[in-house]
Write a structure and sequence with these properties.
The chain has about 425 residues and is α/β, with parallel strands linked by helices. The protein is about 25% helix and about 20% strand.
């Protein structure tokens, strides 16, 4: 199997956990401030399980023969003949392993395998984030949580919060005349950024999809939540110049050729551009989601059905949890300014789920925007075809609960709307 294929398969296994509902044109606890849920580094601890009953003198002779020095793994491991120790010289350790594994007095030998507690992080409000289990977010955390990836949030700005530390935010820029700071004075941008990269497993508030990613705040909407297409286009260009790999656009309006062109340039530069479909509750999109180069995002609720407010139709390629507050606890809970945790709903809330998933895939080794988009689509499960949609437009949904990927996976229609 070639290296590119190996990488795609590995990333696809991660993305299967990050399953996002898709509506496609085509049916195709660390210390606070530390890195959360990082994929562990290679171990330098060698573990050798010798034959039960072997004498200590025999063990020491074996170790001397391979040039390593180990101790009992614990005070009670002598009867199991389990030894371990740090071996800084990797080449020496690998050579010792090869010889020990061939020794009939050795039951098993390996580099120590890091383990972690499986289950919820210790963020106290995580139990209310129904949307994260729906996309299998825990697998993304174990894959590095987007470490090393820059996600531009083009919005009302993003503020430093107790649950969104300064080290996860770049300085940013404002494109709103009369405003020099990229801080959030409305709340929308911080809520969006929280879904992408809220501090996770820090014992505070909520969790984020890619908690080790870095947010680039670009303020294009004022305190009243409004802005202009040229401000947004300028911010998209700035995001590319600043090295963002993902751009989140939880905003929209009427069609703009200027915005479409800006999105096209960003995508040509290798950036994944994710844009909200809109909240008109009908078919049809505005800009920037209507750009062919953007991943248009519609919204689903806790029942995995299209949210009643969500726009849909040509140009929407993927859907994700955006909330449905008609259902109990159905909003998307995140931190916003004023140190408040609020449930919001909208395609604005769905879009950062896709941006966060893209950051995880880039951080896990995806080599291009094309690869990220392909993996996101391959990891989705079809739900059905929406009535009155274009003949080649299909609604996809999250992994059907009855399916078992360990048994080979399955695809099951859940019916149309």
């Amino acid at each position: 199997m070639s290296e590119p294929i190996r990488r795609i398969v590995a990333l696809l296994l991660i993305a299967i956990g990050l399953v996002l509902p898709v509506y496609s044109r085509k049916a195709t606890p660390p210390p606070v401030g530390g890195d959360a849920f990082l994929a562990p580094a290679a171990s330098d601890v060698l573990v050798v399980d010798f034959r039960d009953g072997i004498r200590l003198a025999e063990v020491e002779a074996e170790e001397a023969a391979v040039g390593i020095d180990l101790d009992w793994s614990s005070l009670v491991s002598e009867d199991e003949a389990l030894r371990s120790g740090t071996v800084r010289d990797r080449a020496l350790g690998d050579a010792a392993l090869a010889r020990l594994r061939a020794d009939p007095d050795v039951e098993a030998a390996e580099w120590a395998v890091p383990m972690e507690a499986l289950g919820y992080p210790n963020d106290p409000l995580y139990g209310k984030q129904w949307n994260f289990p729906h996309i299998g977010v825990e697998r993304g955390w174990r894959a590095g949580g987007g470490k090393g990836v820059v996600v531009a949030v083009i919005d009302t700005g993003v503020s430093v919060l107790p649950d969104l530390p300064a080290e996860r935010l770049l300085p940013g820029r404002s494109f709103v005349p009369g405003t020099t700071s990229s801080a959030d004075d409305q709340g929308h941008g911080s809520h969006v950024a929280g879904t992408i990269a809220q501090a996770t497993n820090n014992g505070v508030g909520t969790a984020g999809i890619a908690p080790n990613a870095t947010i680039l705040p670009l303020k294009v909407l004022g305190a009243d939540g409004s802005g202009r297409s040229d401000w947004i286009a300028a911010a998209i260009d700035e995001a590319v110049d600043q090295g963002a790999q993902v751009i989140n656009l939880s905003l929209g309006g009427g069609h703009s050729d200027v915005l479409v062109k800006a999105v096209e340039k960003a995508r040509a530069a290798g950036v994944v551009v994710v844009a909200a479909a809109g909240n008109a509750g009908r078919e049809g999109l505005g800009s920037p989601a209507d750009a062919e180069a953007a991943l248009g995002v519609s919204a689903t609720g806790p029942d995995d059905a299209l949210a009643p407010y969500s726009s849909w139709g040509q140009g929407v390629e993927i859907s994700a949890p955006g909330g449905n507050k008609n259902l109990p606890g159905g909003g998307i809970l995140q931190a916003t300014i004023g140190d408040r945790y609020e449930e919001w709903q909208g395609t604005s809330m769905a879009t950062p789920h896709v941006a966060g998933a893209a950051a995880v895939l880039f951080g896990a080794g995806a080599g291009s925007a094309d690869e990220v988009e392909r993996i996101l689509k391959l990891s989705a499960v079809p739900m059905g075809m929406r009535k009155n949609s274009a003949p080649d437009a299909w609604m996809w949904g999250r992994l059907y609960p009855a399916c078992s990927w360990s048994a080979g996976g399955c695809w099951r229609w859940r019916g149309g709307w």
